[in-house]
Amino acid sequence: MHTHTHDFLTQLTLRDDGVPIYVQIREQFLAAIATGALARGSQLPTMREVAVALKVDLNTVRHAYEEMERRGAIDLVRGRGSFVANHPSPAPIDADPLDRMALAAIARSLEAGFAPAELAHRILRLCKGV
Amino acid sequence: MHTHTHDFLTQLTLRDDGVPIYVQIREQFLAAIATGALARGSQLPTMREVAVALKVDLNTVRHAYEEMERRGAIDLVRGRGSFVANHPSPAPIDADPLDRMALAAIARSLEAGFAPAELAHRILRLCKGV
DNA sequence: CGCATTGTATGAGTTAATGCATACACACAC
DNA sequence: GTGTGTGTATGCATTAACTCATACAATGCG
After folding, report:
1. Which of A62, A126, B106, B118 has its CA 20 to 30 A from that of B91?
2. Nearest residue in chain A measured CA to CA from B16
């Protein structure tokens, strides 16, 4: 039994904007992993926990987890649980101008004391705000 | 016939990340409207133009346009075209410093010819230590 | 009027997303 | 071994997303 139901679990939310549920779950976890909110090697909340918390189907959560595993972001271990992969960051890219712009934004974000992932989500949210 | 096929048209892009096409189109237009890249009252590219440019169905584009109209962001006029609504700016958001930073990033993105949503995803991807 | 442009609409068909229920397989603790 | 927790898997049903094709309706221009 868990002593401290994942605090991350309580932060998960679902928008009603047409984006598939599994995509929303995937993005939120990837963002948390990127910012270190979910440390490498640490255990993710159980698929069932997420399913219950968000009141969605177990298979929907599994869909999100599977995609994250395919990307190498997490490891799924039958009978034990899901864990953030501890592979050294394998994504050293910045040739693309968009990537450079993204890195600049990340830098500005960190300077100002904000999590880059938060900024990214604001951008997405503002785009959709009419 | 158009003399200057919408430059905005050439900036439209589609990701392959599970987000419905109509949502991606919607987001990119709303962002452009929010930042003023598409001025109030100005004409949007034709549904057919967008459909051809992105190689998607006319009905898919229409889905996106319909949602934008329902939100009051644009006006659809049969036989004439689609136009950015000139209602007083319906998106008065920028109190939060993070929002301001996000809007600045959106503006830079559009200037450079990139979809803000794309930028947001790059940010997430680059942060992601995997 | 005749015609091109543009938004509107419909129907058939395919694929994906989601939910619900029911299991099975593996790990670990007791 | 037993039991519980966890990931894995299947089948069925429903709804949404998307494509393709074909049209209709309104506008505006010559």
Report:
1. B118
2. A23
Q: What is the pTM of this model?
A: 0.77
Shortest CA gap B45–chain A (Å): 18
Give residue-wise pLDDT tens across range A65-81.
999 999 999 999 999 99
Which residues 95-124 in chain A have a CB closer than 7 A to strand C?
A: none
Q: Which of residues 70-99 of A touch B (CB under 8 A)?
A: 71-73, 85, 87, 89-91, 93-94, 97-99
**φ/ψ of residue B43, rounded to 5:** -85, 140
**Residues of A with CB below 8 A from B18's CB?**
20, 22-23, 26, 67
Least confident of A47-61, A88-102, B2-16, B115-129: A88-102
pLDDT digits (tens, 9 = 90+) for A26-51: 988 887 887 678 899 999 999 999 99
Number of Cβ within 10 Å of residue B33's Cβ equals 24
| CA dihedral over B4, B5, B10, B11, signed as positive or negative | positive
Q: Look up residue A66 and give its amino acid.
A: E
Stated length of chain A? 130
Structural domains of chain B, with CATH: 7-92 (1.10.10.10)
| Helix and strand counts by DSSP (H, E) for chain B | 6, 2
- Does the CB of B26 sit below 7 A from strand D? no
